[in-house]
Amino acid sequence: MVQQDHSLKRLVTAFTAAALLSACSLLAPHSSTSQPPTPQMSSPQPPMSPAPPQSPPLSPSAPAPHAPSPARENHLSAATRSLVTQARTQVAHGDLPAASSTLDRALRIEPSNPLLWIELGRLRLAESDAHQAEGCGRKALALASGDRLAQAQAGRLLADALRAQGRNQEAREVESQPFMNSSP
Amino acid sequence: MARSKPHRLRKLLAVVGIALIVLIAFTGAWIVYLDRVVTRDFQGRLWSVPARVYAQPLDLYAGAPVTADDLEEELHRLHYRSGDPAAGPGVYRRHGGDFELHARRVRFVDELREPELVSIRAGSDSIIGLRHADGTELPIFRLDPLLVGNVFPVHGEDRIVLSPGDVPPLLRLGVKAVEDRRFDEHHGVDPYGILRALWADLRAGRVIQGGSTLTQQLVKNYFLSDEQTISRKATEAVMALRLEAHFSKDDILVAYLNEVYLGQDGSRAIHGFGLGSEYFFAKPLAELDVGELALLIGLVKGPSYYDPRKHADRARARRNVVLQELADARLIDAAAAKRAAAEPLGLRPPGGGYVPAYLDLVRRHLKRDYAEADLAAAGLTVYTTLNPRAQAAAEQSLARHLSHLDAASRARGAHLEGAVIVADPNSGDVVAVVGGRSVDAEGFDRALDARRPIGSLVKPAVYLAALETGRYNAATMLDDAPITLKLSDGSTWAPQNYTHEIYGRVPMVRALAESMNLATVRLGLDVGLPRVADTLVSLGLETRPTLNPSLLLGTVEMTPLEVVQVYTTLANGGFRARLRAVQAVLDEQGRPLKSFKVQVEAAAAPAAVYQLDRMLTLVTARGTGRGASARLPPGTIVAGKTGTSSDTRDSWFAGFTGTYLAVVWVGYDDNRATGLTGAAGAMPVWADVIASVKSASYQPVPPELVEDRWIGFGDGLETTAACSADAVAVAVPTGTPLPGKPGCGSSPTDTLTDKIKAWFNKTIH
């Protein structure tokens, strides 16, 4: 009798545990590398991609752990897009210091947007400041994690910045990274 | 021998004559010399224009965290007035959350904006949208930058220079009536005034009147020392006469009003009525009422004796004497004098947009980043990264908490001091600096100059150095056990935990969150002191610390500003952004001097920094920083670290959100024990500052090859949120093998069937 009772308890525990396990596996955090690659986007003039007016959907402020969002896609908001346009106009007029201030302004609004860091890095290259361009490229690459298109753009910036410093070997290493193939 | 007499006389006369000629020649040369000094220097200084210093303008765009009330407050700060915007620039109209604004003509760092009509809709927590006057959508619009000060970048003084048109008539007449009644008649020196003063002094038996004219006072301030000698008096008189010969009475009076010494703000002298008005009343001179003007005029007689902040009664009495003199001179009527005499002094409360500590940093960064010759040019405009809202929040939080802590403290009569710096870690922009609890008191700038042991604020560098080796992760078990070290000087060192307890084997994440000393010392020694020192340097510490084991517990001394530089790199994913307070300097023609760009450099491995930062979020979620969360909006994720130096002499908190980084220090100036841990002293200030600047949660982009896993906070074993009450999510390199908790083990690589199989195997056998 006692024995039977015990095995019944075990069976119930087994079921509960199995249910829990399956629940756990749903809750279990995922690895960011196991994500499918970002669907490619055609962008005539990177990094100003045709973007919806809203800000990128940031992961909700759910408690930790941060489930890394599947594939990320970075966009510019209406405000930062207009600033990037303004900066490009300023570059076209040869006013690089003004363009730099305008991009600073955009970065204050979206500091984690790799597209803005890529834009700033391109400006640094135009100013012949390859060292700063390299910093922007590395920063953009880190922020572009999960966004293959942005990664490829950041990688190209980084490679250009390295080449401008005569570091061709490092540039080639960057270009051989897998994400570099996802360019449009 | 008779002829020798006239001969001697002739000789004597000749000697005297030559002496006289020499004397006259010397006197003449001396006067010519003084004349040159007076004309050259006076001309140079009379029209020297200080650099105008502006704060970061507020950007408005859909989603900007600015409420309707915030917006109106900002418009008031910028002296926009409510009315009909069609009337002209500088006017706005508000209906609920809808604003119509006629923006002024503004020179920004990158463009000149002409006056413009815009409409803005603000919601209860952010801006909803903006439109041009013609109804088309406006994606982004910035308000005028706030003028926060005037500095002479080369000699470091700040001054608000008045031109003749800026001087209120009552000030002009009042200063003459009180200080130098015969100013318009004399030629720089007033013999009648000297006699009168002498007579008054003789009758009183001591010096009560100076008898100096305004011109002499000006000369003394400009060119001479303070000593009271006959030769200095003579020099002063000659210079005063020469000055009057070359310049108009009005030039001299205006120069006097710009130069006169009115008070002391720590190491900074308050010269001139323009700055005096700003310093004492936080208003432009033109807006002062009769009583306020009288107070300033009265200060000329004895700026420290009548200092209204230290000796309010003396200052009030002096003001009322001046009011009476103004009434006697019929400059104001007796009734107005009487009314004004009954008013309070009207001093500006602390935190009124007056930012000496921030300007201090601006001056240092100007010197650091610009050529001195460029800075000497007149009429520069300095664009800073100051955020006036963050600055006000930091000042108020610090003052409020220090008062509470003082009241609760047993150290009677001692006053805690503190410092706060707020920065944008992404750009390195310093947005607020508070150098002490009272913005006005003795001007020691603790934020920039107080160098103190940082205590456990050093621990993140130790853990980062460990993570960078690749041999450690958040779940690695450390040994929190007693340790005794023999130091190079022969002494022994036996550190203890703050709680005096011993925790035994603990996972790294918990050792950091609960700031365990023994586990940290063992970890740091295993990683190696040189590596820890290197990590601190690459994070941004300028001088490599001495390789002493006590480095691991933060005996290294840093200023709050240096801590900000180091933590900026942690908050910025391992990228070091050089701190800056100056965004750009434009010359008089609006051309940039040499714009200082955002400088970002890779300093630490992003994946290692990400793992560390995730652990730092657990400091505030579960560790010594728990108390911070209660003061923040629910669900806000912040990363931070408490720091307490030995004997609780220094209480620190350094932490960051997605938008801001803030570092707070609390302690006594004389370095005595505070009895406060970092969590008790600095952290509440930090949390209040962060809550009031509307920061987004800290949610960094996860790097590649790093994944989230659940582990037990106590035992470090891999588990699930459902399986263990103390499960915490940590970031570890993808695929790191972690020992599982029996009965819970879950790893993302296992399939569900694997788990069930494993579980059945366990239960059956």
List keywords for this structure.
A: 184 residues, mainly alpha, B: 765 residues, alpha+beta, 5-stranded mixed sheet, 24 helices
Question: Could you walk me through the main structural features you see in this protein, from its secondary elements to its overall organization?
Answer:
- Chain A is mainly alpha-helical.
- Chain A is built from 7 helices and no strands.
- In chain A, helix 2 packs antiparallel against helix 3 and helix 4 (114-126) runs antiparallel to helix 5.
- Chain A is flat and about 35 Å long.
- Chain A starts with a helix and ends in a 9-residue tail after the last helix.
- Residues 1-5 and 11-69 of chain A have low confidence and may be disordered.
- Chain B is an alpha+beta fold and 765 residues long.
- Helix content of chain B is 39%, strand content 17%.
- Chain B contains 24 helices and 30 strands.
- In chain B, strands 3-4-5-8-9 form a 5-stranded mixed beta sheet, covered by helices on one side. A 5-stranded antiparallel beta sheet of chain B has the order 16-15-28-27-26, with helices on both faces.
- In chain B, strand 6 and strand 7 (112-113) form a beta hairpin.
- In chain B, helix 10 (312-328) packs antiparallel against helix 11 (334-342).
- Chain B is globular.
- In chain B, 49% of the residues are buried.
- The model of chain B is unreliable at 747-751 (pLDDT under 50).
- The chains are: A mainly alpha (184), B alpha+beta (765).
- Chains A and B meet through helix 1, helix 2, helix 3 and helix 5 of A and strand 25, helix 21, strand 29, strand 30 and helix 24 of B.
